[in-house]
Amino acid sequence: xxxxxxxxxxxxxxxxxxxxxxxxxxxxxxxxxxxxxxxxxxxxxxxxxxxxxxxxxxxxxxxxxxxxxxxxxxxxxxxxxxxxxxxxxxxxxxxxxxxxxxxxxxxxxxxxxxxxxxxxxxxxxxxxxxxxxxxxxxxxxxxxxxxxxxxxxxxxxxxxxxxxxxxxxxxxxxxxxxxxxxxxxxxxxxxxxxxxxxxxxxxxxxxxxxxxxxxxxxxxxxxxxxxxxxxxxxxxxxxxxxxxxxxxxxxxxxxxxxxxxxxxxxxxxxxxxxxxxxxxxxxxxxxxxxxxxxxxxxxxxxxxxxxxxxxxxxxxxxxxxxxxxxxxxxxxxxxxxxxxxxxxxxxxxxxxxxxxxxxxxxxxxxxxxxxxxxxxxxxxxxxxxxxxxxxxxxxxxxxxxxxxxxxxxxxxxxxxxxxxxxxxxxxxxxxxxxxxxxxxxxxxxxxxxxxxxxxxxxxxxxxxxxxxxxxxxxxxxxxxxxxxxxxxxxxxxxxxxxxxxxxxxxxxx
Length: 509
Fold this sequence. Notes:
The protein is an alpha/beta fold. About 30% of the residues lie in helices and about 25% in strands. Strand 19 and strand 20 form a beta hairpin. Helix 2 packs across helix 3. The termini are far apart.
């Protein structure tokens, strides 16, 4: 009876720092992190996290202070991430892909007190606050230390300011609470039943929200995380030789790996690739399935929802039903997704409208920004500004971005619909469709196209191709040919905003 009573008094962890402490007590020799030559045990991870917390407190970090992380993927990144939380600080991930000026602007917007990371990246980043290398945070004394037990954050404290990719404007800082991050990490992208105790490769940049959630997911479900930078050879080696069973990629990464995989290459333990940030075409899916011999699962989600949204299951990745590959799947368990039409009413199946999401992962709001006129949240629902529709079976299909919609001659044109038609042409390598100001039409539908090497194709032929598949008002009135790859976001998606700035303003390719 006494043993049962003690068990009932145990409080389940509600934050990642609390979970790490619990695992260090319950399974101290388990290995949550892999690295070349070995890996960290839960006991070692908990102690290193405490070292970071003590070091940050010694240099003046106080509860609520923002600490930015700037480094390539490595075990230390995740340890410092958890150490900032152990000190009751707030993590601000910074992408190494940003220019020095972009980094400085982000650090200023977040009001960062400490910038921690890799020496070279720190040196080239303008910052007036304190800079500290990761290794310095682990070098302090291990003891000194009962006060560290009082620093565990509360579930509703601010944990992360995750900046959006800025595809439609200036990046904004989505604020995640510890509760939201932990809720997402416990079930997204992999469940304990599926991947607990297995090895998960995290190779997408940890500055991105999806990669952060995947790394935290490995900790939360008791898996082992292998962290590395994305290079084709490095990732293929990790998949083939490190016993990895699960990983997360974006379609661009999948395409690069398919192209780079040598003949006869195999990943013998790989069970599932989870991907987001775009869809797989039937051709790329067929090639990827042939290369990887594993299941595929797609996610539609965003930074503002802590990467919670919809999923397209492995069973729905079926070339006998290729139309499903164009779907974003169905809502994740515990997540509400609806499509809202004119006047705020729920749109019936088949009718397009704005996609709204409600879940425990929804952000607290944008850092230093007040939602304007209810456009960000509506009665607890996050307004994604994505246009989508449900079919009769409950699958969500994304049509386009509300911000990218073109108004031509009083009619709405969704660029993604036109891009899908042009992108299906065998001589087109990549395409972006934008609206260019026009005195007669308001906006003129314009396509910026890069052809495949050796292709010889004129604008008239491409417009005729569109007219055989689309209503005439949706077809481009002008085609501009690009000699260089189109600008992309950090997640590898073509950035219509950057294309619009370049080609819409200049009027030339």
